[in-house]
Amino acid sequence: MLQALWIVLALIALAAAGLVAYWMVTQFSQTMEGHKTTPHQGVVKHDWLPTGRIDFATRLDAATDENKERQNEFKLLVEERRIVESIAGNENLEIQWRLATLTEAKAVVTQYHKYLSENSLIKTIPDLSASPLPSMTPQSNSSAQQQVSIVPSPDGESGILAHSAERRETASKGKAPLAQRP
């Protein structure tokens, strides 16, 4: 009986020592994590200023060669810099990339459109609403007057220009006109 009492007391002392050790390890690790996350502070001489450089970010798998021509979601990034003086008196340049604000995105788009218009790179479709409506009566000579209309492409994403003479020829050959093709 006396031997069982000594074993129980030893187990209680061992459990208490284990709890104290666990508490000390958690306190020590929290203190160490606090030191890791606190950056070395210096005096900020110039706060974050945009450099004017921009970039785009996307998902990692979207940037592969197979996905180059696929549409995807891109995020506009803006580069910023600041100068911080360290405790020793050295000036350190810090650079960061952050997501652009709506105002910055609008400025980028405005500059891009200005560049396109100044260099005549914007391609416009001729105003088709100014042309007279096509007549609904069949014509005997298909080459006498050609009518232009916008026909949706099979993938449904972009339109193509088709001449009514081509539409009549395909209909006479028994094929469905371009506008009715799937």
Description:
A hairpin with a 6-residue loop joins strand 4 (148-152) and strand 5. This protein is an alpha+beta fold and 182 residues long. The protein is built from 3 helices and 5 strands; from the N terminus they run H-E-E-E-H-E-E-H. Among the domains are: 43-118, no CATH class; 148-180, no CATH class. Residues 137-182 have low confidence and may be disordered. It has helices at residues 2-37, 102-118, 164-172; strands at 43-57, 75-85, 91-99, 148-152, 159-163.
Overview features:
disordered C terminus; two-stranded antiparallel ribbon; 3 helices; 182 residues; alpha+beta; three-stranded antiparallel β-sheet
Structural class: alpha+beta
Fraction of residues in β-strands? 15-25%
| Spatial ordering of strands, largest sheet | 1-2-3
Intertermini distance: 93 Å
Q: Given the structure, what is the number of helices?
A: 3
Low-confidence stretches: 137-182
Helix content: 25-40%
| CA radius of gyration | 36 Å
Taking the sheet with the most strands, its summary is:
3 strands, antiparallel
Number of strands: 5
What are the secondary-structure elements, in order, as H or E?
HEEEHEEH
Rough shape?
Answer: elongated
Average pLDDT, all residues: 74
Task: Write a short abstract of this structure.
This protein is an alpha+beta fold and 182 residues long.
